[in-house]
Specification:
With 233 residues, the chain is an alpha+beta fold. 23% of the residues lie in helices and 30% in strands. The strands form 4 sheets. Strands 6-10-9-12-13 form a 5-stranded antiparallel sheet, with helices on one face. Strands 4-5-1-11 form a 4-stranded mixed sheet, with helices on one face.
């Protein structure tokens, strides 16, 4: 039976920023080993022609992401499933509006805009992580952002709401989560699972400082985009 696991870890706030990148990368591999239930040797992971890491035996698929002090790993145990994962620290960025103008659809820009001069950063990262986890699922990179479909409906009953606004020939689901600490530190995480054996994710923490986690939305891709979002919002 297929399983879908998400492992999350948070570095200590005492870790200097200059050491974070290396430690976050190591943490991703540690989480993957724990989810797999075995130590991972150097040759247990290879990369395809696009640079996407995978297990050579194809009995499971995984994806790793890190941002700020957080690392997230998604793992599906089935040769017939693929997964994508992206986590982002929610921070105010001066380039947010420019990024949205270049990569987001008009309905997506409307969704994230508080007014003509200001963006809701949390909503921006909901859309951004959905697009990134889809791209990583398919083996693309952030430089292929224009290949990601819209995730806010532009017409019909789902206008202005979450939707996978494209047709899907294979079952495909997305799960979006928000994480926030008592000090106000926020993250958004999106994960995807593609394949016939659809199953809901189980979330596991691998650090001593778990953050409260809430489900923001679940999106089910379908031949008819009007039927893809659950719950309706």
């Amino acid at each position: 039976m297929a399983t879908f696991s998400i492992g999350i870890s948070l570095l200590s706030s005492n870790v200097p920023k200059e050491r974070r990148k290396k430690l976050l990368s190591a943490e991703g591999r540690r989480i993957l080993s724990l989810l797999e239930g075995r130590p991972l040797a150097a040759n247990d992971i290879v990369k395809d022609e696009n640079g996407r890491p995978f297990f050579p035996d194809r009995r499971a698929d995984f994806n790793i992401s890190h941002s700020g002090a957080a690392t997230a790993v998604s793992l599906v145990r089935s040769a017939k499933l693929r997964t994508g994962c992206d986590i982002q620290a929610v921070k105010t960025r001066v380039t947010t509006l420019k990024i949205a103008e270049f990569f987001f659809s008009a309905p997506e820009r409307d969704y994230i805009s508080q007014d003509i001069h200001k963006t809701n950063e949390l909503k921006f990262f909901e859309i951004w992580t959905l697009k990134e986890c889809f791209l990583k699922l398919r083996g693309f990179s952030v430089f292929d952002m224009r290949k990601a479909p819209p995730f806010i409906g532009g017409k019909g009953p789902n206008q202005g709401s979450f939707v996978f606004d494209a047709q899907a020939s294979i079952p495909l689901s997305f799960y979006v989560y928000g994480l926030q600490s008592d000090s106000g530190e926020q993250y958004v995480m999106s994960v995807a699972i593609e394949g016939e054996e659809q199953t809901r994710p189980e979330i596991h923490w691998f650090s001593q400082s778990p953050l409260p986690l809430r489900s923001i939305v679940e999106i089910k891709a379908a031949a008819n985009p009007a039927e893809t979002v659950s719950p309706k919002i």
